[in-house]
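User: Can you help me understand a structure? I only have the sequence.
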Amino acid sequence: MQPLVLASSSPYRRQILERLGLPFRWQAPGIDESLKPNEAPETLVQRLALAKAKALAPQYPDALIIGSDQVAVLDGEILGKPGSFEPAQKQLLAASGRSVEFFTGLCLLNSGTGSAQVHCEPFRVHFRTLSQSQVSAYLKKEQPYDCAGSFKAEGLGICLFERLEGEDPNALIGLPLIALTDLLHREGVDPLDPSIQPCQP
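Assistant: Let's start by predicting it. Here is the structure, written out as tokens:
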């Protein structure tokens, strides 16, 4: 199997990818993630996922490189990572009782052949009606300031939701494993292949 490389510094994406049991390396791609004028969220995340994978290709000339990017969208506006308490509080109060769309771009680049598969995974989160005290209590407990949408769905953030709508809940955390497994299969990699040595915890 070609080396597998995750083009991300996100600990959340690393934890998700570890579930497949495949040995992999990871490295931050260091690209410009600025939004282009009038760029649709779906286009943005696919463009950035591809750019992240391509950024590591010179260092890994014969590897399968995974790039991923995610945005949250409310009322057609992209919600950035809050960074601190006040922006996170504003985001969650705006989402209270409403639905937020998440778009996760995924790319699997074979740097040996130059072939790139690019995918966008949509996911919708329906929020409970939340009081300011509930939002504040949540943020102080979990401090999800580096997360799009201001929550950690794999943690206490699940209490913010009324229901989830999508094909792969992993997409909400930043890496859609069902779609990634499909892309890997097209490159001849089966995570269930008994000959593959599992990654070490």
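Now, to help you interpret it: The first strand starts at residue 4 and ends at 6. The beta strands are 4-6, 25-26, 64-74, 77-79, 99-110, 115-127, 161-166. Let me know which part you'd like to focus on.
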